[in-house]
């Protein structure tokens, strides 16, 4: 099956055409907010439950700019990135937005906000089941790949020095890519009670995930079956030591060659992803209990317990200013990297991904560290502040980090500051970008990133459900209406 996606269609899929932006900005200055959703006939997937949820939220969300952003962002995944094939098996291909490929991580996170509506909409439930089915096939095809094509043709990264397979877009091994499908699968079961997707093929995928995780504990040495190098000017796009990466001493943790940002790790044991692995392995075990596979469930719990024990021994560092905090990466030899990256899983997002309670004292110390200039990838400027990463370089804040900060906040003032900053840094477009310059939100990367858009919508729904409509409606209006100019990544 072949799909053709042209970047020339980006403005149409994302919302209002680029030629209408000047008029649209003028209209918004008159407080007439024009929807930037595609027209109804151009939307890729329709869900009655999602449309009703939008109407429900807008009845209580009276802040004109925030309501406009919510209506643009919340349905962005199903409007522009979901290709649902409603055959007997159900099959769903989900692109990230302006990149025509399906990431295991992004696709899980993009559709996750709709799970709570699945019982009210059988077609939506089938679409979500189709995502799980396709992810299952991809995991069996290559558990070391992070992203796949839904069509034939030569892969963009076919020249990477690794074992590239047909249909693979990119083969950067990221531990979280093994975790997210399990995270989505468990949440799907909790939301729907539907066991039909957890068939023999899904069980084989779980076995493949376990086998890959165990191999990447590197107990047999650093030269595993996976290696990766790329001809590139960006050192974060490749691995050292002939593709095997930095040495790692076996200690029970699971190595990850790349981070959720698709940037290489410095030290192979990526702490947030190991916490995520513990959480999803325990969730997978609960699914396996439900489908009467106690042996595999026990295997999941055994590995989870081993990794959890290793995290307590190797991931905690005594910081001179913050006390005990979680390191970002370690190598098992005693070396550690203190930082955080804006992507999830990161240290900031651990409670958001159900890896630990938000009041965990070491997490709270870590949270203070990562949202400070003691974190080398925290940037503060005249336009805003937040966490970035080497993926787009210095001075570029990822709005996703601000959204996650609001999720994990314990007071209304902090939530208000986060949301005000999000509105002030959208470049007047009503969407969430990958990153923006800390001093100039008109400089941003990726005008169409469905994960960032949908997670923002998810945050607004959560806050409404938490009874914070009054807080949202009392926020100040954004302080600028800039003319946007998309910038290239370095």
The percent range for strand residues is 5-15%
Shape call: globular
Which fold name corresponds to the CATH topology?
Answer: Glycosyltransferase
CATH class: Mainly Alpha
Q: Roughly what is the average pLDDT, rounded to an integer?
A: 92
Q: Helix- and strand-based class?
A: alpha+beta
How many distinct helices?
16
Helical percent range?
Answer: 40-55%
Q: Could you give the distance between the termini?
A: 34 Å
Major pleated sheet: 4 strands, mixed
Tell me the strand order in the biggest sheet: 13-14-15-16
CATH architecture: Alpha/alpha barrel
Low-confidence stretches: 1-31
What attributes does this structure have?
Glycosyltransferase, four-stranded mixed beta sheet, single chain, disordered N terminus, three-stranded antiparallel beta sheet, alpha+beta, 490 residues, 16 helices
Question: How would you describe this structure to a colleague?
Answer:
A four-stranded mixed beta sheet has the order 13-14-15-16. A three-stranded antiparallel beta sheet has the order 3-4-5. The longest helix has 21 residues, at 294-314. Residues 1-31 have low confidence and may be disordered. The protein is an alpha+beta fold. It is 40% helix and 10% strand. It is globular. It has one domain (9-486): Glycosyltransferase, CATH 1.50.10.10.
């Amino acid at each position: 099956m072949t799909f053709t996606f042209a970047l020339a269609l980006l403005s149409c899929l994302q919302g209002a055409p680029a030629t209408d932006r000047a008029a649209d900005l003028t209209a918004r200055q008159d407080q007439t907010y024009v929807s930037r959703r595609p027209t109804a006939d151009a939307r890729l997937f329709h869900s009655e439950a999602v449309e009703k949820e939008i109407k429900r939220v807008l009845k209580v969300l009276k802040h004109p700019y925030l309501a406009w952003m919510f209506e643009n962002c919340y349905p962005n995944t199903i409007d522009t990135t979901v290709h649902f094939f409603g055959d007997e098996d159900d099959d769903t291909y989900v692109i990230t937005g302006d990149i025509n490929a399906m990431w295991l991580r992004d696709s899980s996170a993009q559709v996750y906000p709709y799970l709570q509506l699945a019982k009210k909409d059988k077609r939506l439930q089938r679409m979500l089941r189709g995502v799980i089915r396709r992810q299952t096939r991809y995991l069996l095809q290559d558990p070391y790949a992070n992203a796949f094509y839904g069509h034939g043709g030569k892969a963009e990264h076919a020249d990477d020095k690794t074992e590239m397979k047909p249909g693979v877009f990119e083969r950067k091994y990221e531990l979280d890519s093994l975790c997210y499908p399990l995270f989505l699968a468990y949440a799907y079961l909790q939301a729907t009670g539907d066991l039909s997707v957890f068939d023999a093929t899904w069980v084989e995928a779980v076995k493949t995930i376990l086998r890959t995780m165990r191999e990447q504990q590197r107990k047999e040495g650093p030269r595993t079956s996976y290696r990766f190098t790329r001809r590139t000017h960006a050192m974060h796009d490749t691995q050292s030591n002939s593709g095997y990466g930095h040495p790692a001493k076996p200690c029970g943790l699971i190595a990850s060659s790349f981070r959720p940002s698709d940037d290489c790790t410095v030290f192979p044991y990526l702490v947030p992803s190991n916490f995520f692995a513990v959480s999803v392995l325990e969730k997978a075990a609960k699914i396996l209990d439900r489908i009467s596979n106690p042996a595999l469930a026990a295997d999941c719990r055994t590995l989870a317990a081993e990794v959890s024990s290793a995290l307590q021994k190797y991931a905690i560092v005594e910081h001179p200013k913050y006390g005990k905090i979680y390191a970002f990466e370690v190598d098992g030899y005693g070396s550690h990297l203190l930082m955080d990256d804006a992507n999830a899983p990161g240290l900031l997002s651990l409670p958001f991904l159900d890896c630990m309670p938000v009041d965990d004292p070491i997490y709270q110390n870590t949270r203070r560290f990562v949202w400070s200039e003691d974190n080398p990838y925290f940037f503060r400027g005249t336009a805003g502040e937040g966490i970035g990463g080497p993926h787009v370089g210095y001075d570029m804040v990822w709005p996703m980090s601000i959204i996650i900060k609001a999720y994990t906040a314990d007071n209304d003032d902090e939530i208000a500051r986060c949301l005000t900053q999000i509105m002030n840094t959208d470049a007047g477009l009503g969407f969430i970008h990958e990153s923006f310059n800390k001093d100039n939100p008109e400089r941003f990367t990726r005008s169409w990133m469905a994960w960032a858009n949908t997670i923002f919508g998810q945050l607004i729904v959560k806050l409404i459900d938490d009874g914070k409509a009054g807080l949202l409606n009392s926020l100040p209006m954004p302080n600028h209406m800039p003319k946007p100019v998309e910038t290239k990544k370095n």
